[in-house]
Design a protein that fits this description.
The chain is an alpha/beta fold and 444 residues long. The protein has helices at 13-16, 24-28, 31-46, 61-73, 87-96, 123-132, 150-167, 185-193, 213-221, 226-239, 249-264, 279-293, 323-328, 367-384, 399-420, 428-443, and strands spanning 5-7, 76-80, 114-118, 138-143, 175-180, 196-200, 268-274, 295-297, 303-306, 309-312, 333-342, 389-396. It contains 16 helices and twelve strands. Strands 1-12-11-7-10 form a five-stranded mixed β-sheet. Strand 11 (333-342), helix 14 (367-384) and strand 12 form a beta-alpha-beta unit. Helix 4 (61-73) packs across helix 9, helix 5 packs antiparallel against helix 12 and helix 12 packs parallel to helix 15. Bound molecules: 5-phosphoarabinonic acid. 5-phosphoarabinonic acid (PA5) binds at residues 82-85, 144-146, 149, 152, 205-207, 291, 427, 430. Residues 82-85, 144-146, 149, 152, 205-207, 291, 427, 430 line the site of 5-phosphoarabinonic acid (PA5).
Length: 444
Amino acid sequence: MSEITINYANMLSDKIGKEHGLTLDELKSLQPLAGKIHDLLKVKREKGELPFFDLPYQDITEILNYAGHVKDRFDNFVVLGIGGSALGTIALQTALNNSQYNLLSKSERKGCPRIFVADNIDPVQFAEMLSALDMDKTLFNVVTKSGSTAETMSQFMIVMDRLKKLKEDRWNENIVVTTDRTKGILRKIADEMGLKSFIVPDGVGGRFSVFTPVGLLPAAVAGIDIKGLLKGAASMDERCRKDSILDNPAYLYASLLYLSDTKKGKKIAVMIPYSYALKDISDWFRQLWAESLGKKYSLDGKIVNVGQTPVKSLGVTDQHSQIQLYVEGPFDKAVTFLKVEEFKSKVDIPTAFQDKKELSYLCGRSFNELINIEMEGTEYALTKNNRPNCTIVFPEASPSAIGQIMYMLEVSTAFAGGLYNIDPFDQPGVEEGKKYTVEALKKS
Ligand code: PA5
């Protein structure tokens, strides 16, 4: 199996100076704390308190069988969910399916349904999506761990109402629910109404749930190789069992970002894939890093207000939008490139203008070369201007590599929680907003 790797030379003081770059000693000085966090995570994992760690080893037979049934029966599959119930699915679809998947014919999609993710309650977008779909040929996957999120539950009510009008007592054939095993009103409704359901395992929070039916069911329905995905995650799990910062890719990545934030003032972590397939991995990571680490209280109850702001970007598009800021603006960013060595397709640039000296340098080259040379150009400009940057290298954007990166970033986030001394698994700030909405609607 080809492994993803991290090249972090440009985060170090040798390359970008001591003011902005880390010394190896600074990195190594984190090891005693890292060792303690490692032991704590290990004990919690063994006690079953952090079940996300063991998701690569689950039995996925039921998901695969059900996905087969969906393929025969439906043309469209719509996820109703938000936050951790949607972003993993979006990332998997963009990474591992054809970039124009929904435009392909059914046979080009190998019989699989089109995939939509409704992670907003914009009335225009939602109304237009529903009116564009043949409801009878559409399966709606209501995904909510808590079973009570206002956005998702109101979407569900709208869809249920439409289906009832169309299909009377057969409406529930078009709904599949992914929620908690016992808790939440959606679980109660699903049991009462006999809805097909999948379980979000106990103790796995939304943003750590991509390797549960939350992400795996829509992926399997779209024909994505979820076995390969989990194999990649399992291989990363092996690499993440080491306690040494320099040998454990998840700990290394978390330590680089944490030290850049706390020692060098890099309050912003930019992730910039030079691959369209990886575009939504940075969106998924944005939520994971922000919601897990942006916290008011430390584990010992002190007000700390920590967290690094994750920013998503895209190469080469943002070279013509953001890179000027990253190279010459405030010294407040650490940049992570995501680089793919072998793309799925090759696009050659014809030799059309060989005789024009302004364009001849492009003739006979390929987009594959150009995109990576442009990435090197950005890396060079950042490094020359003393801006910390590292590169996560993907031999290819395969199911295994996507499994590796997503698992690695989950472990990085859990570990970074220890470094910041906060709880990375709660989200009291989000809950506060959710509570306000419920109260405001009840009062008005
Ligand atoms: O990561 C999280 O826990 C959140 O982003 C949730 O996924 C999000 O708030 C949606 O919650 P639920 O899945 O309960 O509907």
